[in-house]
Design a protein that fits this description.
This protein folds into 3 domains: 191 residues, Threonyl-tRNA Synthetase, Chain A, domain 2 (2-Layer Sandwich), CATH 3.30.980.10; 287 residues, Bira Bifunctional Protein, Domain 2 (BirA Bifunctional Protein, domain 2, 2-Layer Sandwich); 99 residues, Anticodon-binding domain (Rossmann fold, 3-Layer(aba) Sandwich). The strands form 8 sheets. Strands 11-15-16-23-20-19-17-18 form an 8-stranded mixed sheet. Strands 1, 2, 3, 7 and 8 form a 5-stranded antiparallel sheet that branches. It has 604 residues and is α+β, with helices and mostly antiparallel strands. A hairpin with a 2-residue loop joins strand 5 and strand 6. Helix content is 36%, strand content 25%.
């Protein structure tokens, strides 16, 4: 349905701009897009209404989607006559290189290709009304069966993803089977705008970017640093409970380390190169920690009695992401990883994976995000290292662990890392979006490449297995997800500011009492501020609400005389409608207990 709507949209655009030239138009996610070249004309949001109106005419006409085939040379002649240079380029590539080139092109817009053919003899087209397009389908029977849709945005896109090629306009739409599903999706998108972590990060004073520092290099304010530190501390605690020990490795390394690990061949273009003024060493900023951890493992002889060895390092790594793909904290160039690696015997794999699965489940249960598991396997391509037999064994062991832990899971080929299969945890946020977060990866390849070994019980050398795990993954990307999940309303244990004390006036006695309460709170490890400004109490309360502070306490004569306060509880945390009057000591003790137990609701 979504791919058919891409054709309907292209048909409508062609009616409105007869000289339009088309690239590719696949279905993606919840919708579809089409890359379009309109010459000097620029599409804008103002054009959406007339394009949608034309699309509805085509839909109401219920035009059948008719499939036809043409010999490749006839198809090229068609593209040339129709003045569709992008289609002509695709067809010429198909004629020259067949399947090899086809795999690099957009799957939704290719001709019919037989596996193993060196050249393509025939290609398929689909026609609706007077619009004909190179396409291998499939489509719905007719334009009247495409469902509900809405055009969303237009963006620039280089032809075939290369900035050396012409820039086209990529017109996006969303589509669903029913009007209700479409309406629900649009409502979710509106809510997502309100929760955008980039806006909330600024409003809540969590992180900043600077042109002088560089794109994709976020800096965290004191408030944001508290949030990320509390999360990574919890992640570390969950693994240290299972015997993980902290290690530290430098931020740069010789290029040779990643050549040995295999990362250079796979990701060399994503690495930052570092030039030394003292030596001729070729250096890079580290893009991951695992090769370093193998060096620590190999630094001394290991016995079967030493295993498992468990290393933990929350560190910043660096990847030279493309500028156009950077966005807030979701995609950055400095990536903080709550990384960990286990070196173990094969008979220890199941126990180690079980421990990591339990830790991941506890973390996401605590923060209130539902989880399911994706078992990420290799596909049949040659993009992976290691023997297929080892892969098959590894994939089965991961599945056994997930089944044993009674986790909701699904399997997906082609999502594995190049060195081994993995368990990806998919977390669902408050508005129903799913995000890949934690991961557990089994690795038989890196120990082999680095020649890691241990002395087994029989005195012979054996190869250890390596297990990679990150509970949060990229801390920055996780924070983007979590900020939007909570809409910035963090629970007490994570809130950068847990309590805001507000004085009703600036008299010495009032200020002194507020400062005394603050000193007691800080002595118990709580985070709070005092607003003793000359603003009205109402404005002060509003300021605390905008920063989504969990508890706001007004201090005046009554509170000073009785030593009791009436905490204002943030609405999402409150379990009672009526505020309680509690002694100051009891209030502080309650907040301390809530922070330690990591609860999501107030106990008051």
């Amino acid at each position: 349905m979504r791919h058919s709507l891409a054709h309907v949209m292209a048909s409508a655009v062609q009616k409105l701009w007869p000289e339009a030239k088309f690239g590719v138009g696949p279905a993606v996610g919840n919708g579809f897009y089409y890359d379009i070249d309109l010459g000097e004309a620029n599409l804008s949001v103002e054009d959406f209404a007339k394009i949608e109106a034309e699309m509805r005419k085509i839909i109401e006409a219920d035009q059948p989607f008719e499939r036809l085939e043409k010999p490749i040379d006839e198809a090229i002649a068609w593209a040339r006559e129709a003045k569709q240079p992008y289609k002509e380029e695709l067809l010429n590539d198909l004629k020259r290189a067949g399947t090899t080139v086809a795999k690099d092109l957009d799957a939704a817009e290719l001709g019919t290709i037989a596996e193993g053919e060196a050249q393509v003899s025939n290609v398929s087209f689909y026609q609706n009304g007077d619009f004909t397009d190179l396409c291998r389908g499939p489509h719905v029977a007719s334009t009247g069966k495409v469902g509900a849709f809405k055009l969303m945005r237009v963006a620039g896109a280089y032809w075939r993803g290369s900035e050396k090629n012409p820039q086209m306009q990529r017109l996006y739409g969303v589509a669903f089977a029913s009007d209700k599903e479409l309406k629900d999706h649009l409502t979710m998108l509106e809510e997502a705008k309100k929760r955008d972590h980039r806006r909330l990060g600024q409003e809540l004073d969590l992180f900043v970017f600077s042109d002088l520092v560089g794109s994709g290099l976020p800096m965290f304010t004191p408030r944001g640093t508290i949030l990320r530190d509390r999360l990574t501390d919890f992640s570390n605690q969950l693994r240290q409970r299972n015997g993980f020990q902290k290690v530290w490795t430098p931020h740069m390394t010789k290029k040779a380390l990643y050549e040995a690990s295999g990362h250079w061949d796979k990701f060399g273009d994503e690495l930052f190169l570092v030039k030394s003024q003292e030596t001729s060493d070729e250096l890079v900023l580290k893009p991951m920690n695992c090769p370093h951890h193998t060096r620590i493992y190999e630094s001394q002889p290991r016995s079967y009695r030493d295993l498992p060895l468990r290393y933990l390092e929350t560190a910043t790594v660096y990847r030279d992401e493309k500028s156009g793909e950077l966005g807030g904290l979701s995609r950055v160039r400095s990536i903080s990883m709550d990384d960990s690696h286990v070196f173990c015997r094969q008979d220890q794999i199941e126990g180690e994976i079980n421990n990591l699965l339990t830790a991941a489940h506890e973390l996401y249960s605590t923060i209130g995000m539902a989880l399911r598991v994706r078992l990420s396997y290799r596909d049949e391509t040659d993009a992976y290292l290691g023997e297929p037999g080892l892969w098959k064994s590894a994939q089965q062991q991961l599945k056994n662990a997930v089944v044993a832990n009674k986790l909701d899971f699904f399997e997906e080929a082609g999502e594995a890392a190049f060195y081994g299969p993995k368990i990806d945890f998919m977390a669902t946020d408050a508005i129903g979006r799913e995000h890949q977060v934690a991961t557990v990866q089994l690795d038989f390849v890196m120990p082999e490449r680095f020649g890691l070994k241990y002395i087994a019980e029989d005195g012979k050398e054996q190869r250890p297995v390596m297990i990679h795990c990150a509970l949060l993954g990229s801390v920055e990307r996780f924070l983007a997800v979590y900020i939007e999940h909570t809409a910035g309303r963090f629970p007490v244990w994570l809130a950068p500011e847990q309590i805001r004390l507000i004085t009703v006036n600036q008299e010495k006695a009032t200020v002194a009492f507020a400062r005394k309460v603050a000193a007691e709170a800080r002595g118990q490890g709580l985070r709070l501020t005092i607003d003793e400004s000359s603003e009205s109490v109402g404005k002060k309360i509003r300021a605390a609400e905008l920063l989504k502070v969990p508890y706001t306490v007004v201090i005046g004569e009554k509170e000073i005389a009785g030593g009791e306060v009436v905490p204002r509880i943030r609405k999402d945390m409150a379990v009672m409608d009526v505020p309680l009057t509690v002694p100051v000591e009891q209030f502080l003790k309650t907040v301390v207990n809530e922070a330690r137990s990591r609860v999501l609701k107030s106990s008051l």
